[in-house]
Amino acid sequence: MTTLFFAWRYLWSRPLGAALNLLLLSLGLASITFLLLVGAQLSKAFERDLAGIDVVVGAKGSPMQLILSGVLHLDVPPGNVPIKAVQELARNPLVEQVIPISLGDNYGGYRIVGTSLDYPAHYDAQLTQGRLWTAPMEAVLGATAAKAMGIQVGQTFVGTHGLGAGGHPHGDSVYTVVGILAPGGSVLDRLILTDTASVWKVHEDYTAVDDDDRRVMEDEREITMALIRYSTPMAAVSFPRFVNSTTDMQAAAPALEITRLLSMLGLGTDVLRAFAGVLLLTAGLSVFIALWSAVRERRTDLALLRMLGAPPAKVAALLLCEALWLGLLAAVLGVLLGQGFAQALALFLSLDHSLLIGGMVWPAGLWVVPALALVVSLASALLPTVAAYRVSVLRLLQSH
């Protein structure tokens, strides 16, 4: 305990230098913490939202756009597809389940999704209030959307055209909130769910058509896309090719497209990781210089300690503990700063109702941060510690 106390006093005997070393080391660790947190939470979000969805079928265009818009709800869809074509796919023996997704409107920036009851069931969604919809124009709100809008069961609202706030309101089409989902950490938290027929009712105008035209309109109904689960793993080989080659639709595999997306993001992550590495290397050199200088400046103190009976190992441990104090403080500060950066990113993304990132979490990989702090500190203190261990009392006294 005495060694730890003296090491702490020695560390802050030069407060400016200690603070600068601490800041530099903490920034490097904070950068690594941020990358680990965001990477772990993105992987968790993708794994959670894509689970059980084997393929997404929608209008031809960008496969990645189809996944981002229909599964993660981060992009606009490439277009619509006929409901009859999707129903035909549902009869394919390779298909176990088809979940329709219809987009086009929002309320307060939160997307209104026309779908079936299979959609909340797919994510094992639980209700915290009310019930699920049983008729068109009944809506169930995700936990995040309900909290942001301040809506309760029984209240009504009017959607606006488009997937972002600011569109033209559908004043003659009023939704009634019949349920609110419990927070589940999935994409459903930031969606407003309703029956597929609600989307058709909002966008179809029956006032100026006769019965024949109405039947034609109903026959030509469309949805945005369909989330499909295979009946057999072997379907992954033939089903997407079948859809892409024999229909006017496209099939996109979520796992493949997200892998592509992560590889595209890899360059930016590598740059940030390299930046963090440079900060840590610079911090390590700075700590080394500070400790090496400390050995030279404290010759008298070291000689006095040796004359009072302190063994060489005790003197070396004093310097080593000083480095450990620095590493410990930097680890705590770096993790806190990294968590703060992740929270700031979560706040920024919430403005766009994007992925659910943030919160004080500790993934298993985050233990590398305190370990790295101690390694950098000990490595920086290695040579100065050896120098302190080998210090000659006679030579120090003769130099004074």
UniProtKB/TrEMBL annotation:
Broad class of the protein's primary localization: membrane
Source superkingdom: Bacteria
InterPro entries per UniProt: ABC3_permease_C, MacB_PCD, Macrolide_Exporter_MacB
UniProt keyword Cell membrane present: yes
Domain ABC3 transporter permease C-terminal: 274-391
TM region(s), chain numbering: 20-40, 271-295, 315-337, 368-389
Localization annotation: Cell membrane
Membrane-protein topology: Multi-pass membrane protein
Annotated keywords: Cell membrane, Membrane, Transmembrane, Transmembrane helix
Annotated MacB-like periplasmic core domain residues: 19-199
Name of this chain's protein: ABC transporter permease
Organism (species): Rhodoferax potami
